[in-house]
Fold this sequence. Notes:
Blueprint: E1 14-20, E2 25-33, E3 39-40, E4 43-46, H1 51-71, E5 77-84, H2 92-104, E6 110-111, H3 120-126, H4 147-166, E7 175-179, H5 183-194, E8 198-202, H6 206-215, E9 219-220, E10 233-236, E11 255-256, H7 267-275, E12 279-280, H8 283-286, H9 289-294, H10 304-311, H11 313-328, H12 332-344
Parallel strand pairs: 3-5, 3-6, 4-5, 7-8, 7-10, 8-9, 10-11, 11-12
Antiparallel strand pairs: 1-2, 2-5
Helix pairs in contact: 1-12, 2-3, 4-5, 4-11
Bound molecules: nicotinamide-adenine-dinucleotide.
Nicotinamide-adenine-dinucleotide binds next to helix 4 and helix 5.
Amino acid sequence: MSVFLNPEFDNHEKVLFCHDTSVGLHAIIAIHNTNLGPAAGGCRMFPYDTFNDALTDVLRLSKGMSYKNAIAGLPLGGGKCVIIADPNEPNKSKLLQAFSKHVQDLHGKYWTAIDVGVGPKDADILAEHCDYVFARSSEYPEGFNPSQFTALGGFYGIRATVKHIFGKDDLQDITVAIQGLGATGRELSRLLFQAGAKLMVSDINQAALKFVVDQYDAVAIDSGKIYSVEADIFAPCAMGAIINDQTISKFRFKAICGLANNQLASPKHGEILADNGIIYVPDFLVNSGGMIGAGSRIFSNPTVEESKQSVLKLYDIIFNVLEKSANDQQPTALVVDKMAQEIIFKNI
Ligand code: NAD
C-alpha cells in the first residue's frame, strides 16, 4: 500500500525505508514535523506481522511525538523509527549498528532513543556509529534508567487525575489496573505502591508479573481480563491501540491514564470514552516525562535531579487539561490536540 494512502499518514515530512541485506535489517524512520526543532523520538524493535503494520505504527508514533514534544514545551519536532525484528534475536546488536548508520545519514534531522524492545544499553550500541542518540545508559553512569522519568510523569499524571476526580492530593486506597510491567510499568507500580494505591497488574511475561506482585503487593490479573476489572484508574503500559471496539465496552474505570503510546485505536474511541463518562488522559501527554527528562540532553546538560524536577510540571499541565475538558465539555484528546497544533503551527 502507498505510504501516502495509509490512514495514519498526516503530512509527514519524510518517511525513510532502511534496508541492509548483510544483517537482514528492515526498518522505517518517520519524521512527522520539524517546525519546533529536530525530530526526536524512540526506536522500537518489534516483530510486526506485516510490513504495513510497521508502517502504520511508525506513522502514528511519529505524529504522537510531534504533539508530545510541543505540549511538553520542548524545542523538538516529532519522529520515530521501527526495526522489524524480535528484540530477543541473537543478532540484535548488528541490527542496531546497521540501523544507526541510517540515522547518522540524516545529520541530526532526527534524534533516536529507547522504546519497546530497545533499552538504554541498546541506545549505547546505536551511538557507536551515530551522534544523534539520547537516553543512553552511558549518559547515566550512576545507573539511572531514563524510563524512570516516563514513569515519574505517569505517577504525577495519575495524581493530577485523582485530584480532578476526587479532589484529593493523596492516593490512599485508589485502585489502579496496570497493563504491562516492563521498564515503565514496573517503576510506575513502585511509585503507586509507595503512595498507598492498590494495584491490579497484568503482563504476558510471567517473570515481570511475579516481580511486581511480590514486591508491590499487587493482585495478578490474566492479561485478557485486565480490561474488565473494577478500578479507579486504568494505566496501559504495554502496546498501543488497546482502547478499541473489542475492549471499550468492558471498561468500568473512572479514568485511563497510562504510559503506552497510541492507546486509542482511532479518535472515535476517545469520543466514546467521553460519552461513557470515562476520563481519558491523552497518552502522549502522560508519557512525555521521558522526553522532558531525557530529551533535554539534546540541547542542555541537566543533572538527573534537575531533570526529575522538570518532569513534575506534568501535574499542572494534566490537571489544567482535565479541568478545561470538563468546563468546555470537550473530550480531552480534542483539547490536547488543539493545544499541540496551536504550538506547532503558530508561526505558519
Ligand atoms: P517494555 O518493553 O520495557 O515493557 C513492556 C511490557 O509490556 C513487557 O513487560 C511486555 O511483556 C508487556 N506486554 C506486552 N504485551 C502485553 C499484553 N498484551 N498484556 C500485558 N503485558 C504486555 O516497554 P516500556 O519501555 O515499559 O514501554 C511501555 C509503553 O510505554 C510502550 O507503548 C512505549 O512506547 C511507551 N513509552 C515508553 C517510554 C519509556 O521511557 N520507556 C516513553 C514513552 C512511551
